[in-house]
Amino acid sequence: MTAFLAIIHRDLLLALRTPGDSLTVVAFFAIAVILFPFGVGPEPQLLARIASGVIWVTALLACLLSLDRLFALDHDDGSLDLILLAATPVELAVLAKCLAHWLIAGLPLVITSPLLALVLNLPADAWPWLASALLLGTPILSLIGGIGAALVLGARRGGVLLPLLVLPLYIPTLILGVAAVEAAASGLSPRAHLLLLGGLLALAVPLTAVAAAAALRQAAE
């Protein structure tokens, strides 16, 4: 656990020293959502109907912005070799990196989502469920993205390949997240959708640990 926390602490310190990456993710999320009323019109009912889908799709795309740097910086400066040679299991280091990525890129999206829901006229009763769905869904995006980032590590055009790899895998999370918010906005219970999101998160943790660790070992050879 000491090594696990040390990796998280290191990544957070690096993010604080170069806050532009984190701010870019939040700025993209906010600007993309705010642009939709200009594109589809200011009709409140129309905005409320598309609000959940717009917020989830833009959050998904915002998470993609920083995924290519998840392991690339460690690979470039040699830190990845130290992680692979350390006594700490590589799988644990992968989870630490993904958790740090979520704290840097995913958690700010969860925090800002109610403000953007107001812009899109989403009913106030659905705001807590929107934040809850993103709180369960954005870690899944970071974990799945961690597999993709490890697979394209060292590739010549990895930044182009990464979205092609992970976007199809994001679809179940996107569907469940949008369905949870729409159910809450319609007065129905989003509990089933949130439970399924929780199940996907529980499945993504061991899958990411094993798959990404294997990809990192292959990239280091």
Description:
The chain has 221 residues and is mostly helical. The chain has one domain (2-220). The protein is 84% helix and 0% strand. It is built from 9 helices and no strands.
List keywords for this structure.
elongated; mainly alpha; 221 residues; 84% helix; 9 helices
Number of distinct beta strands: 0
Oligomer: single chain
Helix content: over 70%
Query: Strand portion, in percent?
Result: under 5%
Cα distance, first to last residue?
27 Å
Poorly predicted runs of 5 or more residues: none
Question: What is this entry, summarized?
Answer:
By secondary structure, the chain is an all-alpha fold.
Per-chain topology:
Blueprint: H1 2-17, H2 20-40, H3 44-65, H4 72-77, H5 79-85, H6 90-119, H7 127-151, H8 158-185, H9 191-220
Helix pairs in contact: 1-6, 2-3, 2-6, 3-6, 3-7, 3-8, 6-7, 6-9, 7-8, 7-9, 8-9
